Amino acid sequence: MKALTPDELGSIFSHALTEVISKISSYSLDVLSTEKDAAFNENVAVMSLNSNKSGMLFLSAEEPDMRALCSCMTGVPEDEVSVEDIWDALCELVNMTAGNAKVQLFDTDHMFSLSSPFIITGKDISIISKKRSTVISRSLGNDEISIKMKIAY
User: Fold this and answer.
1) Which residues, at least 6 apart from 88, have a Cβ–Cβ distance to it below 8 Å?
2) Which CATH number, 3.40.50.460, 1.20.1250.20, 3.90.1150.10, 3.40.1550.10, labels domain 6-152?
3) What does DSSP say about strands 43-50 and 55-61: parallel, antiparallel, or unpaired?
4) Which terminus of the chain is more exposed, N or C, with fewer CB under 10 A?
5) If you compute the radius of gyration of the chain from its CA atoms, what whole number of angstroms results?
6) What is the tally of helices (H) and strands (E) in the chain?
């Protein structure tokens, strides 16, 4: 099995997310930041990555950005997208990203099985992990949308 550095793992998940976004919308994303302490928005999709190096994948985007993505995913006009639609779209986005990354991580020390996605919602959400945990953070976006991603293991 091939061992991966945190930077390589971050690149794989960043690529997975940008690939998923480009398939479901006309948006092309770039990595804007790797700031580890970036605050999440009020809705965070979470998925457990279970393997010999188990961890968690977190994705978050502001409501207007998720409305735009949800509209692309469902065909529902942005002004008709409900909060529940946003939650469903965010869960699907984390699910598709983790699934895409899982394929790329085959035969590495990060092969994993996936949990069901779920949403954490509230104001000023912070994701804190133990000091010795490896945390990979990325802010991806363009002039129109922005998504925050964190992997902790």
Assistant:
1) 70
2) 3.40.1550.10
3) antiparallel
4) N
5) 15
6) 3, 7
Query: Which residue carries 């912070």 as its tokens?
Result: 126
In the three-class reduction of DSSP (H, G, I as helix; E, B as strand; rest coil), residue 59 is classed as strand
Tokens of 81: 């997208």
Q: Give me the count of residues in the chain.
A: 153
Phi, psi (rounded to 5 degrees) for 57: -110, 130
Predicted TM-score (pTM) of the model is 0.91
Of the candidates 59, 56, 61, 60, the one whose C-alpha atom is nearest the C-alpha of residue 129 is: 56
Neighbouring-strand partners of residue 90: none
Cα three-residue angle 150-77-122, rounded to 5 degrees: 35
pLDDT digits (tens, 9 = 90+) for 8-45: 999 999 999 999 999 999 899 999 988 776 678 789 99
31 touches 139 (CB < 8 A): yes
Q: Distance (Å, rounded) from C-alpha 110 to C-alpha 52?
A: 7
